Amino acid sequence: MPVPWFLLSLALGRSPAVLSLERLSGTQDTVHCSPGLSCHLWDGDLLCVPGSLMPAPGPVLVPARLQTELVLRCYQEQDCDLCLRVAIHLAVHGLPEGPDQDLYGTDAELKPEENGSLQAQVVLYFRAYAASRCVLMEVQVPAALVHPGRPAGSVVFECLEVALGAEVRIWAYTQPRYQKELNLTQQLPDCRSLEVRDSIENCKALPWLDVATDGEDVLLHVDISEGQRVGLSLYWNQSQGPTRPWWHQNLTGPQTISLNHTDLVPCLCVQVWPLEPDSVRTSLCPFREDPRAHRNLWHGARLRLLPPQSWRLEARCPMPAEASLCWQPPGGDTCQPLTPLLPRENVTVNVHSAEKLQLQDCLWADSLRPPRDDVLLLEVQGARENRSFCALEPGGCTPVLSRAPTRAARLGEQLLRDLHSGQCLKLWDGDLETLWACPMDKYMHQRWVLLWLAGLLLAAVLFLLLLLQKGRVKAAARGRRALLLHAADDAAFERLVGALASALGRLPLRVAVDLWSGRELGALGPAAWVHAQRRLAMQEGGVVVLLFSPAAAALCREWLQDGAPGAHGPPGTHDAFAASLSCVLPDFLQGRAAGRYVSACFDGLLPPAAVPAPLHAAPLFSLPAQLPEFLGALQGRDAPGPARLRESARQVARALRPALERCSRPPPDPSPAAPADPE
Hints:
Layout: E1 22-25, E2 30-33, E3 38-41, E4 60-76, E5 79-93, E6 117-128, E7 131-142, E8 153-161, E9 167-174, E10 182-187, H1 201-204, E11 208-214, E12 217-223, E13 229-236, E14 244-252, E15 255-259, E16 268-274, E17 282-284, H2 291-300, E18 302-306, E19 310-314, E20 326-327, E21 336-337, H3 363-366, E22 374-381, E23 387-393, E24 396-399, H4 407-410, H5 412-420, E25 425-429, E26 433-439, H6 445-478, E27 480-486, H7 491-505, E28 509-513, H8 518-524, H9 526-539, E29 543-548, H10 550-562, H11 575-589, E30 597-602, E31 620-623, H12 627-635, H13 642-664
Parallel strand pairs: 1-4, 27-28, 27-29, 29-30, 30-31
Antiparallel strand pairs: 2-8, 3-7, 4-5, 5-8, 6-7, 6-9, 9-10, 11-12, 12-15, 13-14, 13-16, 16-17, 18-19, 20-21, 22-23, 22-26, 23-24, 25-26
């Protein structure tokens, strides 16, 4: 029977009310037994290794139930620590049944001790966040207290010092172990739940932690005084193995930490403690019942099949589940259940959501080779060792030896021969059913060859089309080619042409001008250079730009009148432009100028009317007044929208303005200045 004081033990829930706790004095751990039993606590802690289950040699003492109570261990009136008292209720395992059998009947292999009692070594294992402890107790139960169907008594350990707000897991088992260990999880209150919190020194400076929501986010408020330093840790609590830390930070003064709702899972816990020696840590797991946390846990879980017949559920929190074998037809959305070939474990999953969540993994993913055009055969063992085979297809399980209009039925005899000759792979082997995967690639070989040839032909056609378009694509990517032709009136006009060429080069245009090609002009000569550049522009869909000055207009008039250029201007200044007239002007006279030529003159230097009439067959622009239209004609089909053209025109106009002003400025008067009148 348990000791009387233990009948008043409190069952602590997640949010306990204000508690008034019993006070214990002294610093030593002790054990107590129910009347008639004797017990002893071993000195010091030990390493907990439960070991394997062993068969009981006869009647043995085993833990039957765990019970806990919170108490205070006080060193002075206002200096106490929270402590956990644990009672282990004992029972006898392997006791013979029947009115005429006693503890030491002839059927029991265990011989009595000298004092006529049963003896056991009971291990208590405690584990909390970042701490664990293991103690060993010896218990003896007299034979007179052992009766079938009745408890053998209890032993009480007091006490385990625990952290406020922590979660403690307790295991109890015997050494050696004759049954699965008992376990209990205890959520401890924090300072706010204790009536005697003024007696616990750490409660006076303990940081307060509150959890609030802000829309989809969660806010953690750490309420401490200014200048106080605390540590804050977020971790995933695990039922097996150590806790998994996630995030840690040291804080100074009141702080608010924001968590995204997608980070919430039921086992996410928060621990906070003052950054002082031997400080108490407060732990809180506020998301155990949060529907969002359970949804995140399921959506983040992964199911893995492990050969030959096992599975693993990978999740951030411990999560019970149920597994069954199903079959998903090619292109199907749902997995159709098969006979229960996979062991099932029915466990209630506490998911507070109306949404039905399901995880699925295919055998092809890890257990087998990559997906192929195989067929699944289900072998069913019937009475008198009769076996039947059917093929899993979208319409159901079709008998392989039937006249059904399906692929598996048409190839039924061949599939059975493959199965018996060992060409099929066994996926699952149950008591009455076996699942096979039989290859179909050799039967589908001809169809795949035709598809392969058709694909190869299509790829060849696409490759040829790509080659045909390669030149145009490259040209479009680099910009349109533009060849600028001009007559060199003087140095100021050449600077104006250079400024225009530089401004156009900053646009998606590839500009060629004789001012930038002095070496090529010297090597080829003006006529060969002009003809080569014009031919290249025409081949790539480019444009030739004629920049008219008074000298260029005069050369064109002479060519139109006499059929050859004259010597207007200084000798040698018009070689490139004059050399171009023999192939440029025939294009205008024969109607081939549209789309290939653009003409331009500059405001204040030459009016458009001064350009010979035959040369008006191509667009003629006055710059910079008509710069947007001029740039649009140069870029052709690749020209941007009006807004972009206007912006480009403003940039080109700014580049032309200084050179155009110098060209428009009258030359200085060479006559000497008149002497000033003497005063």
